[in-house]
Amino acid sequence: MTTGLVYALIGAALAAGLAGVGSAVGVSLGGKAAAGVISEKPELFGRVLILQALPGTQGIYGFLVAVLIMVKIGMIG
Questions:
Q1: Which residues have a Cβ under 8 Å from the Cβ of 72 and sit 6 or more positions away?
Q2: Whether the Cβ atoms of residue 51 and residue 33 lie closer than 8 Å to each other
């Protein structure tokens, strides 16, 4: 393997890994806040659901960036 390929793979791993960790932390914090709100006002469920969905999308974006990097260097497709 060449050095450039190794750096590209490390970048793809970091993109997926760090985005996944950040997403997990965000969903955790949002879940704690959502549990408190829902226990007091159950009618706010729809709004609180967004608190859970938004951090979750960041993990998906990181995964997509990792896939795009691997496609660009020729590892996939």
A1: 8
A2: yes
Mean pLDDT, to the nearest integer, of 12-41?
94
Residue 37's domain spans which residues?
A: 9-72
Residues 6+ apart with CB under 8 A from 59: 19, 20, 22, 23, 24
Look at residue 35 and tell me if it is in a domain: yes
Q: Which CATH number is 49's domain given?
A: 1.20.20.10
In angstroms, the CA 15 to CA 62 distance is: 5
Name the domain count of the chain: 1
pLDDT tens-digit readout, 28-58: 999 999 999 999 999 999 999 988 899 999 9
